Amino acid sequence: MAYDAIVVGSGPNGLSAAIVLAQAGLSVLVREAQQTIGGGARSLELTLPGFLHDVCSAIFPMAAASPFFSSLPLASHGLEWIQPALPLAHPFDDGPPAILDRSPGLTAASVSPDAEAYRGLIAPLVRNWNRLVPELLAPPIHFPSAPISMARFGLKALLPATSLARMKFTGPRARALFAGLAGHSIVPLERPGTSAIGLVLAAAGHAGGWPVPRGGSQQITNALASYFCSLGGVIETNHPVISVEDLPPARAVLLDVGPRQLLQIAGDRLSAGYRAWLARYRYGPGVFKLDWALSAPIPWRDSDCRRTATLHLGGSMEEIRQGESEAWNNVHSARPFVLLAQPSLFDPTRAPAGRHTAWAYCHVPNGSTEDMTVTIEAQIERFAPGFRHVILARSKRNTQQLEHSNANLTGGDITGGANDLRQVLFRPVPALDPYRIPAKGFYICSASTPPGGGVHGMCGYHAARSALRHTFGR
Question: Does the pTM exceed 0.70?
Answer without folding.
Answer: yes
